Amino acid sequence: MVFDIDMIKGVYAALPGKVEATRKMLGRPLTLAEKILYAHLFAPTATPYERGKSYVEFAPDRVAMQDATAQMALLQFMTCGRDKVAVPSTVHCDHLIQAENGAAKDLAAANNTNKEVYDFLSSISDKYGIGFWKPGAGIIHQVVLENYAFPGGMMIGTDSHTPNAGGLGMIAIGVGGADAVDVMAGLPWELKMPKLIGVKLTGKMSGWTSAKDIILKVAGILTVKGGTGCIVEYFGEGADSFSATGKATICNMGAEIGATCSLFGYDEKMGDYLKLTSRADVAAAADAVKEHLRPDAEVYADPAKYYDQVIEINLDELEPYVNGPFTPDLAWPISKFAQAVKENNWPEKLEVALIGSCTNSSYEDISRSASLAQQAIDKGLGMKSEYTITPGSELVRYTIERDGLLNTFAQVGGVVLANACGPCIGQWARHIDDPNRKNSIITSFNRNFAKRNDGLASTHAFVASPEIVTALAIAGSLTFNPLTDTLKNKNGEDVKLDEPKGFELPVKGFAVEDAGYQAPAADGSNVQVIVSPESQRLQLLAPFAAWEGTDLKGLKLLIKAKGKCTTDHISMAGPWLKFRGHLDNISNNMLIGAVNAFNDKTDTVKNELTGEYGAVPATMRAYKAAGLGAVVVGDENYGEGSSREHAAMEPRHLGVRAILVKSFARIHETNLKKQGMLALTFANKEDYDKVQEDDNIDILGLTSFVPGSQLTVVLNHKDGSKDEFAVNHTYNEQQIQWFKAGGALNVIRAEFAKKA
């Protein structure tokens, strides 16, 4: 089945003319990202946009939402006055299934536990013309790649790993739910014109090396914030040499370097994947405009002229990487990893190895891993570590079962989990004897922040390709290098693992009995969406209050966060996922993972009303009850990680007025703006050190709040002294209107009310 083929053909019909007009306007050859971006402007422009500075309004082709973020996005959408979404949109139930006892039992438990939420998402999708993918259908990004992604398209998704679709040449960007509401309502979607990082790939991978190793190396080069505000575009003969799903792996994990998205040019590998996933019509349409789905030849010839930064990687020389622990940009080539483990005193014993997830669950990934599992059987080795497999979709799962790969994993004791996110997002009821014991796990996932997978601060999590993860599971040790080392088998013989072998695509093609898709009602006007007032899982939204028209004075310091503060720290996942549709309940996890700079503790801050220390959410609720606002102060790259807008909505709901940090991650800064919050950065980063625990804080200059102007922060210290300094912001005129109205949704409601 080909979804939205008329829309796709419409994009391709207009593409040549739009590309030629852009080329003339810019007066030079174009990168692929520029072709797609300018072809998706909400309104034509006669003047070029400046990378990294100009705010631009786009018209994405589609929207995708996963169940944890779709709840809040659709609760917002249902208040804006439309009777149907303006662009093709889908909901994917992948986040709420907890991994504990294997696929069948876990899926049954999820359907029971989350029935209220699934019924809500199913009915609201039915009502507003949204495609619904049931629990067990698969992880949003894999399902999108198999069904919806197309070269040259533009998509936004309410999940930070939406860029996965770049593996099929699509600009796909992770956003908060309020951004999705804009697009579903038919309004323009705003983004600062990204800068461009070009990654030239030469040579060809072989042996143990895989596409995952490319992005693990790039993460080491650029760090977790090196791609912020940028599109990373991969090109060169090396880029054309490996599979579309390998490309998707790289684009998926580009989120870990802060990239807006990542992108590959259309090639034969993408065409092959489209055809084998029943989209020959899309491949044929793309072939007809292929020259416009790749960078211009001059860009290939002299990339430094067209990209803001160029990185070159020779795939002939690339070796496998293992990244971590605790951050995805701590990159170790496999030849140096064992030494790093010993020098840093990381636990050498590998307790659990997990393959799959949205990042690495393709047929190619699974078949290469299965070839190693078969070697473990044939060579008398077995598995020394606990080993789990997470298929990315029912299409992949059914196909690998048909081809005997699941049976191979079963023979070595592998546990197949549901087609869902599971341990990758903390939905893992891990079995461990002592949760405080230092231990090591390794995954083929994307993130490895502390507590990310199992909620345990003692767990050292590492990230590698599925092949390396499987090899280390066979050895049971992080110090094993499968490229050079041998293992003793059950007969006492020294044996060496052969290079993994697999198939880019299944020889017999893909197969599935029930992919898990539910089409929306042809007419949703009579569909009832019911939310019980007594529900603990779902809560209808009330509009946030508009700005009062004055400077903000007498704000309390809620917390001064120290070091890494991701959206996981601000709004944890795991057991809290069940409250993603209930703003008040989930607000009880607000900032409970952030480290208080004044005592190095989590979830322990001083209540300035009582002088006592307590939980962050409870302290903020006390301030709110007293009619007081507050400020959160943070460090660098505040809000990195998942796109979850709950990390912005919770502080807004509880009365935090401003977030003041050294720097922001892109999605989180936008989410704060959308919710009517002040997202501010220190003009002088050393001013962070001036913030004291008992400060009362004033924010001045709001009555003349305009783009490009600084605001002033006054710290009124307990001893009567004060510090005053300038702070920066990146608000444009429209975003200032969001602030004044109390949030972007209030502006949308007002606009639709005028049209009614």
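The above is record 1. Record 2 follows with the same two-line structure.
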Amino acid sequence: MAEAADFQGTSPSPARRWLRRTGALLAGVPLLTGLAQLPAAPPAEADAAEAASGAGSVSVSVDTLTPAAPTEDDTVTVSGTVTNKGKQTITDAHVGLRVGPLLNTRSGIDGVARNSTDVQSTLGLEIGDKYSEEFAKLTPGVSQPFTISVPVDKLDLGQDGVYQLAVALSGETSAQPWPQTLGVQRTFLPWQPDEAGTKTKTTFMWPLISTVHMTAETGSDEQQTPVFHDDDLAKEISPGGRLDRMVALGKDLDVTWVIDPDLLASVEAMTKRYEVPGEGDDTVVGSQQAVAKRWLTEVQEAVADKEVVALPFGDPDLASLAHNGTSVSGSLSHLKEATDVASSTVDAILHVKPSTDFAWPVDGAVDPSIVKVATSAGADKVIARSDTFKETGGLSYTPSAPRPIGGGTTAVVADSRLSTAFQGDMTKASTSTLAVQRFLAQSLTLGLQTGKQRSVVVAPQRTPSASQAQTMAEALTILQDGTWSEPQGLVAAAKAQPDPAATTKVPPASAYPSSLRKHELPRTTFEQIARTQAKLDKFKVILSDQSRVVTPFGRALNREMSVSWRGRQSEAAIYRSGVEAYLDTLISQVRLIDKSETKLSGRSATIPVTVQNNLVQGVEHLVLRLTSTNPTRLEIGGDAYEEQPVAVSGGHSQSVKFTTSANANGRATVVAQLYTQDGQKYGQPVTFDVKVTEITATVMLVIGGGVLLLVLAGFRMYTQRKRAAAREAQERDHEADEDADAPQNPETAGERPTQQSGANDPEQPSDPAPDTAPENADPSGTGERVDR
């Protein structure tokens, strides 16, 4: 097989390595015995010995190589720097190019890349002195730039393929005054000057994905001003930011855009009023509306007439869900909701209809449980990667990406070498250049493996940095302008004819990488999500406008399952707790007002209980139950409890009155509890005491008798006064008659004689009348009635 063959430039076979090691071990036994009797060399002497050799004491960096894939009439230009990292000055130095042998296999390219700076490995013959740059001396710690240009016809390239290109520095030191190679940097030179008869169809996924930024919290205004977890998204979409560069670079490439709808929704929210964290627990109004509008406009232009794949909302971690979440009730329903909302979100913001048939587990690592979860929400294509979905059939070439794995599901296996080519720090020009050349070398070698046309998929890291995106764009531009590859969309790649010899068996769970498993979201994540969802389900049924709460919290729960929380367990826990705590705060805004002890006088009375609603919207479908813990003493509504429906407008309170009846004196405890219409308790109960004071019949008789006595006493006083007044009137009439019968004295006519005062003298007008008549001790007559 080609991949297993021992071509020049690759490492020796295992048998040959074993023979060499055995011989070296046997030959070294006497030497080791002698060395064991010698004192260990001090560190200073060891450093001196290493410096004396000079091997590898110079660092060679290749910053540019143009053109990356030359044709026959081109001139290859290589530029970079050399740095003396040793302790001795290097003299008579020069930098030259050396073309190594043709690399026939992809594994051979890997081997050269691993040992790219090894001065002991074969370098090949140096091109003539005319194509080199000389340095009189290189001082320790000092860097010198170089630029070398060589016509392609001087490189002596032969058949199509990938050649090793080494940039080496040779020179002398005072310890070793003879020419020697002191530093080298190997890279690759793809050579395919003519159009290939059968081109490889290459699909490059271009991800627009970020971390979680929005919370579940919204303002009480009609627009529901969103609150962001941080303000980092503004930096990413600002000019020069990571996402800004992804859009600017991707718009000129033939790629498949793979987008998390949450990113679009978050940026779209920033185009209006939004809030971000301020000092302490306060929030401040965000000010990046113009930046958000500009970025969304550029995305709309970039994806117009391009293929767009929408991931489930929030980019949920399928592996974590499969391994830790399926045992928690309701977890898969969140994946279904995230998938359902994905298409409408992308369509509403970008005005394109995306494909939602693809699931993308982390790093394309799959096992049967991941595939089952990935397809449970409707996706029938799972993007895997060849370093986990490995070939077991011994193929000598890389097969096409699609693999039918049963049940109508297709595994789209991305090429691991091409997909991981741009990982690491690409801010250095040398690192970026080497990544581009290695990517092109792997792509060309793959295309030359067989005459069959194949569909190859490249699935890079989910969130490339700005420098990684730049390197990806450079490599892809060269590839799309090259002679051995042509672009293809992801949908077409998934529908391509599968290779009948390719492996279609999904790797077992035991093959799942442990390095990925240790970063998965734990079971507690999904338990907390389920707990929050249960609270939300109970809360939403009482709301007059459920969408104001269900939508932001539903999307927040999707975000809690995001791949972006991998490796950030503490931040993920803080976010989840914040979502649940905010929901608890909203739930507590609808509550019963506490009551103090209530006193009841009489056999029946009314008890009011107040329900307060501090939400913006009204609540309904609530039932208030008032329960007596001692119904033999105090009944409510003729029974142990009574229920009444409750509806309260936003920002108002509602008093609900219950009729009670007392059967005995004493204290009875009463419990008020809100319920939803399906019988679920809502909020905390309110407990208070009712003190009953019952009024008996004897007391009523005593009070009634007292009142009657007062009435009778008043009546007696009235009759006595009336009788006294009648007697006085009779006496005055009798005296008047006597005066009329007496003889008159003519001398004294018209005058009244002066009378002496006596007991029987009539009262004078100035005398006060008696307040009450004289008490009559006689028994009541037959016509009187006295009530007792």
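The chain has 19 helices and 29 strands.
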